[in-house]
Amino acid sequence: MKRIYALERWCIDCRRCEVACRAFHSKSCDAVRAYRVEGDDPKNRIWVEGARTVSLALNCRHCADPACVQGCISGAMQKSQATGVVTVDPQRCVGCRTCASLCPFGAVRIEEVTGREIAIKCDLCGERLGEAGEPHCVAVCPNRALVYVESEGGSHE
Asked: Of 2, 11, 27, 50, which has the most beta carbons under 10 Å away?
């Protein structure tokens, strides 16, 4: 399956991936409204971590054998057998943080959404890819520090 990988040497900490993700997951699908009108919701599902010298986007690798799915006590974390995409059912998530503690990439965050804490992670844009056939975060990256490539496992080979 195709996965998103971050190339640290090309990331310039512009955070355009975060903005594109948040806008895409907002009710309006508009960046300005997502930040100025819709408030704390929606949440972006990719995060740039780093310091002034090094930065790197963190996102779900949709692992072949995801620890987050295995450890989810409520069954909210699920992996589609058809697509390989790991998703979170917000209605079932109890915010226990098990998935976040088990993720080897730090790609699952617990955030407050509509008054309760739930797991948030990349959903590959719900398979609604952008015009170029890639997730929106990848499409907007000015340096191509995010790549969307075919991969067998959960780490970039």
From this structure: 11
Distance separating the N- and C-terminal Cα atoms of the chain = 13
Question: For 74-82, which contacts have Cβ atoms below 8 Å and span 24 or more sequence positions?
Answer: 76/118, 76/119, 77/119
Four-residue CA torsion sign, 87, 116, 19, 71: negative
Q: How far apart are CA 22 and CA 9, in angstroms?
A: 24
**8 A C-beta contact, residue 85 and residue 62:** yes
pLDDT in tens, 13-25: 899 999 998 888 8
- What does the alpha-carbon distance between residue 120 and residue 110 come to, in Å, rounded to a whole number? 6
CA distance 148 to 31: 22
d(CA 129, CA 139): 9
Window from 15-19, 63-67, 144-148, 152-156 with minimum mean pLDDT: 152-156
